[in-house]
Design goal:
single chain; mainly alpha; DNAb Helicase, Chain A; 0% strand
């Protein structure tokens, strides 16, 4: 019985690396449709980049390298001209000698017409980022497994490295949230400066308590 148990246990231990290998060799999680839809949304309404850039960590969040390159070109165009269109995109891709690498004019046209509106741009960006985060976790797990199997005599060092890798991934997400909060605070401060210290920035309702809560009736707002 003891030998059978030992053999069974060894058999299970021997099978685990093979099972893990199959998982590591599988296609990593990705969302190509969301990537293309996001790029299409940016062409339709370039200003969505203001929100998208707060969600994504950068072009490396894209699974398809061509999509990441196109995203970088779009961000570059928007930073310079505050516009993004197919003609500009094609020209800057030519100038950077990456037009063929991203799939040519045909692919640019495809992504430009991937969605009918830009309304869900932030949703697409979060999908792209989430899949990227999972891929980073998979890569970190692979490195941790490799260290554990090749250097089993240094468990403390392996654990420390594992914590460092996972913490680095978590910190990236927290950093993006911090940037979002920072932008919101800057917007609030800027609004206060524009108001020049005035509490009521709209039309007074005649009720001081309501004016304090709403800053007065604002154009385009309905207060019930």
């Amino acid at each position: 019985m003891g030998n059978e148990t030992t053999q069974s246990t060894h058999g299970m231990q021997g099978a685990k690396p093979q099972s893990i290998t199959r998982l590591m060799d599988a296609m990593p999680p990705h969302a190509l449709e969301a990537e293309e839809s996001l790029l299409g949304a940016i062409v339709i309404e370039p200003s969505v980049l203001n929100d998208v850039q707060l969600i994504l960590r950068g072009s490396d969040d894209f699974f398809k390298k061509a999509n990441g390159t196109i995203y970088s070109l779009m961000a570059e165009l928007y930073d310079k001209f505050e516009t993004v269109d197919l003609v500009q995109l094609q020209q800057v891709a030519k100038d950077r000698d990456v037009l063929e690498a991203v799939g040519g004019v045909e692919y640019l046209i495809k992504v430009a017409h991937a969605v009918p509106s830009a309304a869900s741009a932030s949703h697409y960006a979060r999908l792209v980022r989430d899949k990227s985060t999972v891929r980073q976790l998979i890569a970190a797990a692979g490195e941790i497994l490799h260290d554990a199997y090749t250097n089993p005599e240094e468990p403390v060092e392996i654990v420390n490295d594992a914590e460092r890798r996972i913490f680095s991934i978590a910190q990236q997400s927290e950093h993006r949230h911090a940037e979002q909060l920072d932008d919101l605070l800057n917007d609030a401060i800027r609004q206060l400066e524009e108001n020049d210290g005035r509490v009521i920035t709209g039309v007074s309702t005649g009720y001081s308590s309501l004016d304090e809560r709403t800053s007065g009736l604002q154009s385009g707002e309905m207060v019930i």
